[in-house]
Each structure stands twice: as structure tokens, then as C-alpha cells.
From TrEMBL:
CDD domains: SDR_c (cd05233). It comes from Nocardia jiangxiensis. PANTHER family: SHORT-CHAIN DEHYDROGENASES/REDUCTASES FAMILY MEMBER. One of its GO terms (molecular function) is oxidoreductase activity. The keyword Transmembrane helix does not apply. Keywords: Oxidoreductase. Belongs to the short-chain dehydrogenases/reductases (SDR) family. The lineage of its organism: Bacteria, Bacillati, Actinomycetota, Actinomycetes, Mycobacteriales. It is an enzyme of class 1 (oxidoreductase). This is SDR family NAD(P)-dependent oxidoreductase.
Amino acid sequence: MSPIPAPDPLFDLADKVVLITGGSRGLGRAMCLGFADRGARVVVCSRKSDACEALAKEIDSRGGESFARACHVGDWRQLDGLIDDVIERYGRLDVLINNAGMSPIAPSLLETPEGLVDKIIDINFKGPLRLTALAATAMTATGGGSIINISSLASRRPTPITTAYSAAKAGLNALTQASAQEYAAVGVRINAIICGTFDTDITAGFVRNPDIAPTVVEPIALHRIGRPDEVVGAALYLASAASSYTTGSFITIDGGVAP
């Protein structure tokens, strides 16, 4: 399958270098395929090298170009090497999508262990914070770029079972706005997508459970769970010249959850 031609120069991503964390499954996988099909050179990044390699081979078989690079986003020490390897391979980085995350639940705030809180903060907030700084610095040397943070509706509608996760994603929202202000002058735009419930392997336990799914769907105006590919359009917009005057902003994709 050949890459899909860009329908408009505003959305042209041909030869752009796009790094997507958490890229081997779920929303990340959908974005890796979507960007590759439109001519971007995609860096597939996740913790497991075999998963990265498998998706990279699939992208290549579709006529795209990819680079598999395993990295644990929650390990601060690994992140410098990740950006360095992308620059060494391609000479530039145009788009970073901070998609990697984890959203475990706990029975109560008191029963939330410190180790779990540390993991949630490391992956959902600290990793994106460090990658934003490193990527923006690299982008500055080549004329700018776009950073997209994948946030969650939980950041704005927190619940007791997702307290730590909600707090981490709220921090990611703050990072989005603050870093957008810091890097605007050097041509780096930073935005976020607020995601509702999507059907992925992580959410399969409840969105595909006939006893639970109706409760999940009930507040959604479109009355269904989102498909992973339905996040791709917003990501393409934020990554391209079509959003050249957009920074520090949020796009909500949740099917119309009732306020």
C-alpha cells in the first residue's frame, strides 16, 4: 500500500520525522500508521523492542518509512539517548507525540502505594516533561516543530479511582500551556489532545464487557466508544502547517461527554 497523498499542502507531512511514544499499540499504533501512510518518517517507540520492530515492519510493508526504537519513557536517563538516536538517523525531529501512558486504578487514596504513584507520574508527566525539553531544543536547530501531548478526560473530570492518574494528566495539561509559552519564540508549537474512552487493549476489560460497557457509553453523546483511528485526524492537524497559529491549545475527542 502506497502512502496516501496529502490532499492539501496545509496537511503535508511528507518526509517529516515524527516520534511517537507508546507507539506500538492502541492510539499510538493508529497514529504511527496514519502518519506513515501520509509520507512521514515514523519513529515507533515503546518499552518492548519486539513490538516496535513488528509495527515498523508493517509500516515498511505498506510503503512507509519507519525506525523502531525501544525506550522506557518513565526512565529519565533513557530519554537523552532516544532524541540523540533520532537526530543521528534523520538529522532532525519535526514532531513529537507524547502518547505513552498508564492508567491503573486504586481502591482508595489511602490504598494507593507510593510505588504506583511514582510510576504514574514518571510515565504520564515526568517523561513528557523531559522529552518536551529535549525535543524542543532539537527542533530549534532546524527551524521549529510541533509537540503533541496525549492527555485524558480524567484530567478535567477526575474520579476517586483515578486520583493519581488524573493529577498526572492535569500536570501534563499545565506542561502543555507553560512550555507552549516558553518555546513559541523559537517556532515550536505545543498542544494537547484530551481523549475520552477509546477501544484499545488497555480498556478492553471494561469497554468490551457487556455488563460494564452500557454504563461507560451512557454519558457519551455519540453513544459509542471511540476507535483508535479517530484520534489520527486531530494529531495530523496539530502536526501540520494547518495549525500554524495554534499553540498551548487543547482538542477534546470524547464523543461528546455530557458536562
